[in-house]
Each structure stands twice: as C-alpha cells, then as structure tokens.
Design goal:
The complex is a heterodimer of chains A (about 425) and B (about 120).
Chain A (H helix, E strand, L loop, with lengths): L1 E9 L3 H12 L4 E4 L24 H13 L3 E3 L3 E7 L2 E6 L2 E12 L3 E3 L12 E3 H9 L8 E7 L1 H12 L3 E7 L3 H14 L1 H12 L6 E2 L3 E6 L6 E5 L4 E5 L2 E6 L1 E3 L2 H6 L3 E2 L2 E2 L12 E3 L9 H15 L3 H5 L2 H17 L15 E3 L4 E2 H4 L5 H8 L11 H9 L15 H15 L1
Parallel strand pairs in A: 1-2, 1-6, 2-3, 6-19, 8-15, 9-10, 9-15, 10-11
Antiparallel strand pairs in A: 4-5, 5-6, 7-16, 12-13, 13-14, 17-18, 20-21
Helix pairs in contact in A: 1-2, 1-8, 3-4, 4-6, 5-6, 5-10, 8-10
Chain B lengths: L4 E2 L7 E6 L3 E6 L5 E3 L11 E6 L2 E6 L4 H8 L4 E2 L5 E2 L12 E4 L2 E5 L10 E3 L2
Parallel strand pairs in B: 5-11
Antiparallel strand pairs in B: 1-2, 2-3, 3-4, 5-6, 7-8, 9-10, 9-11
Classes of the chains: A alpha/beta (about 425), B mainly beta (about 120).
Chain lengths: ~425, ~120
C-alpha cells in the first residue's frame, strides 16, 4: 500500500511532534512516523495524557500531544523507515509488513543515542548505558537496594543518578570526565542565558547528595566474574575501586544520522548542516532536534516549529522564532564544549578489549587499520547486527575514522520484509 | 526522609512511588500510567503471567518488558562470537545486545517486547 502526504515527519519526539503539529494546523496533510509504539521519543517515553502533569517536562508534553491529536495529523507509530528507494518516497517496515509513503516535504527528527566508549570490562552484564538503565527502570526494572556506579560524561549522568536514587538505589559514586574549569565556564554562561537549566541540574544534584560527584574522573575498567562486581576509576593520579551491582555509563549523546546520510544530507562537525529554516542540503528535506546539535527539549521544539512553518511555505512565521533558536543553539554548542572528551579516554582499551560488540573485534585487531572500511574488510568491525551504531561513535573518537557510507536498509530488517518489498514495488508500479 | 517507595513489587503491575516533586503516585509498569493520590502502602491487584527464560519458569506482571524479566532472571541475552555472556546495553532498541529467540523467532530485541502468557524466551 502506498500513501501520499504533503509533509512526512520521521521521529515523534518533541522536534518531530512540533513540526507535524505546526504543518498540520496550517492545513497540510501530514504523517508522523515513529518506530516506537507511542509518540514522545526518549524524553517523553511512556508519558500519557492522564498523568504527564506529574512528570518532569509533562506540561509541555500535554500541550503538544493535545495539539497533535486535534491537528488531524496521521500518527503512525511502530513504523521503521528502512529505505528511500526513490526521491520523495520512503519505505517502511512494521510488524513484518512493508509499505511505502510518498512525501512532498520531509522533516527528519530521528533524535540521538548514547555514545559508548570501550574500556576493559565494558561488555560485562550489568554494565549499561546511563540512559539505557533509565529506560529499563521505567520499563519495570527494580533498582531498590542496587549499588549503582555512574560514569562517563554529560548532563544525563546526574539526571539518571537522581532518578535511580529516588527509587531506592544506592549511588556508589558519579564519575564525570569533564574538567571543573570547563563545567564552571559552562555554568557561568548558562546562568546568564538559561538559568532554568541550572536549576534543573541543581535539583538532580540535591537528590544524589549522598553520592560523591567526582569531576576530572573516569572509569578505567569494570571487573567481575560473569558480571560486573566492581569498577576501578581514576582522576588521573589515584585509582579507587567501588563495589557495584550495575555500572551506568555513557559519554553524552550522538545524533542518529543514518537516515539523513542515506538521503544525502550534508553532515558538518558531526551534525546535519541546516540553514535558518532547518533545511538540509537536500531540497525538501529538513532536519530538527538532536540531529543539528545536542540541545534537548526546548531546542527541538523550536526547530520543529520552524521546520513545520517552512514546510507549509510560511517562512515569515518561522523567522519570528529565530532569536529563541539562536539561544538554544548556543546552549547546544556550549554543552558540547563543556563535555568535550578528554584524550586520556583514547588510552582506555587494552589490546584484548572488544571494540565491536556484535562481532567481538578487539582494539588490537583494528588498531592498525586506516579507515572503518579497511577495518570492515579485514575484521568485520561494525558489520554486525547493530550496523556500527555502537562502535561507530567509538571508532571515530578512538581512531579518527569517518563514518562508513550509508546504504539501505537503514535498519536491520527481516528477510520476510525484504521478500514483501517486491510486492510493494510491484504495487507501486501498477 | 521517609521511605520513598511503598508497595513496590516488581512482580506486580503497579508500584507505588513517592516522588518528591509530586507526592505519592501509583506507577503502572504496563501502561506507564501514574495515578496520583494513592494511599501509602496501597497495593493493587495485577495480572501475572508465566514465562520461561532458558527453560526456567518465572512469573512476572503482565506487560513487563522482556529484557527486564531476563535481567531479573540472571540469564544472559546472548553469547557473543567468543562465547561471552551479554546483557542489555542501550535499553532503547539500538545496540542489539539484548536480542533473543522468543517463541522460536530468532534475533528479536527483547527490550522492545512485552511479556505475554506462556512466552518462551531463550538466549542466542
């Protein structure tokens, strides 16, 4: 089956939702796609109308989900975009079925994922992403009484530690690799531009006061038999060992660039390059939210609105938001600088440390390779089930490799879907 | 500060959470519904389902995430190429470390699935 819309939005987080709402309210036919079962993205994961007002950022969720449902926008959860077989066409997978959707304008809001950097022991069960652990706890994992060490970088670490502490976990320690100088500079600038963000950070810290927040510190290795039992951390001089049941770690976020790359959008400095109206280098394709810089909720909402107005030809409405947008973009830029990765982290993997978890390719095996392509050919690094989604960001930081060429399918699909694809193509032709 | 969580039971659908910002709320694990104003210690009846993880039977609340059930069981999700035990990493369907065979279907991301009655989950 093939459907057609004026505007198709990929990703139903805040940015995608705002874009879809604005375009649909302006009278365009809009389809909002997401691979998850309900809209909201990561920050509004699991929110619903009855209860959102009790949750952080819930008021904004209620505003936008209310407008979304009233806007006449077609909301299609459970749909994964796997390819763009022709200009103006997206191919989707859902519950083993394959379908196509046509668009005149496309808005990408595919969000971000955590950056994982390999270190000895990071493959042990019990070592989880900080955001990953938060998502699992939201899905019912009981953190009561668990000793949790938190390590890595970025504002997410404190938020996750605070959430776990509130639910009864013991936070063994928080290790932030960023330097005091960088964070102090960041805090000072933010104080004058977005004091609300600092209040949020202070709130999280208050809820984790029983745990020490170590700056200039990072996890050296995780140890244990069959699962993580302790983590060894350092501030560059002294090592300390902490017993833990779980290690929550992650190094800020990286954008999900697979789809923009597949469509040919120019990427600059790790993010999609866009103009003042969020338009990418590909005509008719806009990018919003974390794709253009890790800035969180407010940035995503404003960019979504701008892209929504632009998609229906109301550029003047979009330009009204420009000043707000610049403030949010400078926040994103400052975040990246404040949580810039220290070079010591490049020295963490030992020769036998796994870099590519899917194919068990070690640091020793790929260290001599000049590019990701060479590593793929010689070692299968990045060729497993996650298609380099985990090791891609790691190898870029460790070895300076650029990203591999984007090829369909943009996401692993079932062979049944590929077989069904033929039918979809036939239908499209007839 | 008083106990933050009352009546929480990972094997029940509902847990009662005292959120400092909100007061006491009931948190429904299945639909993520939060009901304000619950009484302290209140427990709600919930439906349990029986699943097996690598042949071991366990009872979980209907709608529990499969990856969460597997973490609670202590079983690994999969064994790597070199035979290392692996467990969930990203929790949001990206890293593929939690992929398992569910009801005979291989390579499903357990973190994107909910437990259903009689579900057979096996490490890969």
């Amino acid at each position: 089956m093939k459907a057609g819309y004026d505007v198709v939005v990929v990703g139903a987080g805040p940015g995608g939702m705002a874009a879809a709402v604005v375009a649909a309210e302006a009278g365009a036919s809009v389809c909002l796609l997401d691979s998850n079962q309900s809209p909201g993205g990561q920050i509004w994961r699991g929110f619903c109308a009855e209860t959102a007002r009790f949750l952080p950022h819930g008021k904004k969720y209620l505003e936008w989900i209310g407008r979304l449902h009233a806007s006449g926008c077609k909301v299609s959860p459970g749909h994964q975009v796997i390819d763009s077989p022709a200009s103006g066409l997206l191919r989707l997978e859902s519950d083993n079925a394959c379908s196509d959707v046509e668009f005149k304008r496309l808005i990408l809001a595919t969000g971000a994922r955590e950056r994982f950097l390999p270190f000895p022991g990071w493959t042990l069960p019990g070592v989880m992403g900080a955001g990953g652990l938060q998502a699992l706890v939201k899905a019912g994992l009981d953190p009561r009484g668990k000793r949790v060490a938190v390590a890595g970088s970025g504002p997410l670490l404190l938020a996750v530690a605070a959430g776990l502490a509130d639910l009864g976990a013991q936070i063994a320690g928080i290790f932030e690799q960023a330097t005091l100088a960088r964070l102090a500079g960041f805090g000072l600038q933010t104080l004058f531009t977005q004091p609300g963000k600092l209040v949020e950070g202070a709130h999280y810290r208050l809820h984790t006061l029983s745990a020490r927040y170590h700056l200039n510190s990072w996890a050296l290795r995780a140890e244990g038999r069959g699962r993580v039992e302790r983590v060894v951390a350092t501030d560059g001089n002294k090592e300390q060992t902490l017993a833990c049941d779980w290690l929550a770690y992650g190094f800020h976020l990286v954008p999900n660039l697979e789809l923009p790359r597949l469509l040919g959008c120019r990427v600059d400095g790790g993010y999609t390059a866009v103009d003042a109206l969020q338009q990418s280098s590909v005509a008719g394709v806009a990018c919003v939210g974390e794709l253009t810089g890790i800035g969180g909720l407010d940035k995503a909402l404003i960019e979504g609105e701008i892209a929504g107005w632009a998609a229906v030809g109301r550029e003047s409405r979009a330009r009204v938001l420009e000043r707000q947008l610049r403030r949010q973009q400078s926040f994103a830029f400052r975040l990246d600088r404040a949580f810039d990765l220290r070079r010591e982290l490049r020295g963490l993997p030992a020769a036998e440390t796994v870099i590519c978890r899917c194919e068990d390719v070690t640091h020793g095996a790929v260290a001599g390779c000049a590019s990701w392509r060479e590593a793929k050919l010689h070692t299968r690094c990045g060729m497993g089930a996650c298609q380099g989604r985990v090791c891609g960001a790691a190898t870029e930081f460790l070895y300076g490799w650029g990203p591999a060429e984007a090829r369909p399918p943009a996401y692993p699909v079932r062979t049944a879907t590929l077989a069904a694809e033929t039918d979809a193509v036939d239908t499209a032709r007839s | 500060m008083e106990e933050k969580i009352r009546g929480y039971d990972p094997f029940l659908i509902y847990k009662i959470v005292r959120n400092p910002a909100v007061g006491v709320i009931i948190h429904c694990v299945q639909c993520q519904l939060l009901r304000p104003g619950a009484r302290k210690g209140e427990r709600l009846e919930s439906e349990e389902v029986s699943i097996t993880v690598n042949g071991k039977q366990m009872r979980v609340a209907a709608g529990t995430n499969v990856a969460v059930a597997v973490i609670m069981s202590g079983e690994p999700c999969r064994f790597s190429v070199q035979g290392e035990a692996r467990a969930p990493l990203c929790g949001m369907g990206i890293c593929m470390e939690c992929r398992m065979t569910v009801n005979g279907v291989a390579h499903l991301r357990s973190c994107q699935l909910l437990c259903a009655p009689g579900m057979e989950v096996a490490s890969e």
